[in-house]
Design brief:
globular, Cyclic Phosphodiesterase, Chain: A, alpha+beta, four-stranded antiparallel beta sheet
Length: about 170
Amino acid sequence: MYSVNVPVPSAVARLAGDLSRELPAARARERGTHTLVCKRLGDGTGDGSYHRLEARVREAVSGTPPFRARVTGVEQFATAVTDPSPVVYLAVESPGLVALHERLCDAFDPVADLEGDDYVPHVTIARGGSPERAAALCETDVDPVEWTVTELSVRSARHDRSVTTVSLPA
């Protein structure tokens, strides 16, 4: 499985890491693995190769200018679509990101219950653990973190790493 992701600044990763300490029974993201998923892409084999998938991504994001993103608070998915629940996350506000997600959904089929109208931009803090502690953490006030997105990465879930980047404007 591949995905188009927005790299997050160190301030966002640090905030997520610090907040995860409040959820000791949950599975926190490891340092250096915090990202913001823009669109899941599939495994690349339906188009013949990863290289064709990458070309389709570059075509779909062509002309995309840099855009602003902003962490606005701590929220949760009480019941996750996949994997353990609850999922506590940093909520991200970004009209540019949502517009890019919609463009990518036109080029790649949306994943049911996760994408399209169901897309919620977020940076995962932790999964599972105590629902009560998750709810309490969602009451935490955080200072907003704002940044300009100037590049995207295509990540491989299988290898848990970025396999290519696309600079904006694309």
